[in-house]
What does this fold into?
Amino acid sequence: MTGGMTRPLSRRARVLLPLSVLLVVLASWEAAVQATRTQGLVPHPGGVLWSGAQLTANGVIFQAMSGSLARVLIGFLFGACVGIPLGLAVGAFGTLDRALRPVLDALRSIAPIAWIPMAILWLGVRGNAALFVVAYGAVFPFIVNSSQAVRQVDRRLLSAARALGAGRWVMLRSVLLPSALPMIFTGARIALAFAWASIIAAELAVGIKVAGHGRSVAGIGQLMVETLYVKRDVDALVFYMLVVGLVSFAIDAGLRRVQERLLPWKSH
It folds into this structure.
């Protein structure tokens, strides 16, 4: 230590230090489970790795994940198709904002997972209920961010466009949308996070009913329920949890990369 400050770590040390800590934690975890002989009750790294290898080899995880991702994509696109135009309209027209704001705020305050019982009652357990919950969770971030994006557009740009004789369509296409896109993309990232969290919660809830009727699984959440209540495999359950986290990270990173490509002036 020099002058009260530590020396900066090298690039190699910045990589090896957290990796070493992680390996020590995993090794201690494995040793503790082996010493107490609680395999099958407490998950352990070796068991998670073995379960992951089996589930990857037989393709079960890919089948379940494809079903979940398909619902997330459909719900996300529905949220974008409804939320972006509605948000832009609400942000642009004060009268429409005053008319719809109480309804939108009331609906937005209801968590998507609170709709799961009604969705199951109305749409059944074969995927449509989960899809409804995902779409509901995705639409409001688009509405909120799109409306705020329009309100924050520099009014000097609008005045300049009007002075040059731009009509409403030109104003929308050349001024409003380009200025609003960064915040709309932020809304898209939030919507995608909501959609992914909603699909897991919905499939977990739907999966309990599916497992109770002996039906086949259709998504990662339902597969987790079957693993817990039917197979009692805690190692596989932890593997599914890790996959859910990795997929969530990959989706956000992918959308962030798209944003950087389409809006290079807004990337940091």
Observations:
- The chain has one domain: 45-266.
- Confidence is low (pLDDT under 50) at residues 210-214.
- The domain at 45-266 is CATH 1.10.3720.10 (MetI-like fold).
